Amino acid sequence: MPAPVPTPVPRSLVVVLRTMLVLAATGSLVVLAVILPLLWIDLESASRGVAVSLIVVLALGVVSLQVIGVCIWRLLTLVLRGRIFSREAFRSVDVITGAMACGGVLLVAFGVILSGGTTAPGLVLLVGGVALLAFAAALTVNVARRLLAQAVDRDAQARRLEDELSEVI
Question: Where is the chain membrane-spanning (predicted)?
């Protein structure tokens, strides 16, 4: 395991980000425990298939966001330990990419569910646009992962060169 590298990220910034993650996680639990059951009650006039589909898609969307939050928390831990430029970060970044892509698929499913009813076409198009943004975010994270891999490889190469140089000296 490579030695920790000091990080220029202030600890206070990590604390603020973690506070935001805790607030988001709390809100997501409220959505799962309170909002979705209330929505289920409100959907009593809708067909059973539409109601179940809508609740499942929304619940899975919230779970996808929770997974992203957990992975960001893990990445912040690596930042604090000075190990963000390590292979350990790849797993979290890959899971974030997958969860974002899953969110895009869920948004498309949500749009399809909405399009079957009396929902305004503009709202369905808006949901489709947000789905495109979710896919774009997943691709952006994938690009960041490739840059992370490049940085890790260069860091390993620099360590090898330092080791060789110290042997010569």
Answer: 21-40, 52-76, 96-117, 123-144
What distances in angstroms separate CA 153 from CA 3, 12, 42, 86, one per listed residue?
15, 29, 54, 9
Q: Which two tokens stand for residue 163?
A: 């080791």
Element holding 20 (H helix, E strand) = helix 11-30
Q: 134 φ, ψ to 5°?
A: -65, -45
**pLDDT confidence of residue 169:** 77
The pLDDT of residue 31 is: 98
Structure-block tokens of residue 65: 């966001």
* CA–CA dist 80, 136 (Å, integer): 28
- Between the CA of residue 81 and those of 71, 75, 77, 101, what are the distances in Å? 15, 10, 6, 29
Cβ distance 95 to 72 under 8 Å? no
- Walk along the chain (169 residues) in steps of 10 and give the mean pLDDT of each run: 67 96 98 97 92 96 98 96 89 97 97 89 95 97 94 88 86
Q: Distance between CA 104 and CA 135 in Å, rounded?
A: 6
pTM score, two decimals?
0.86
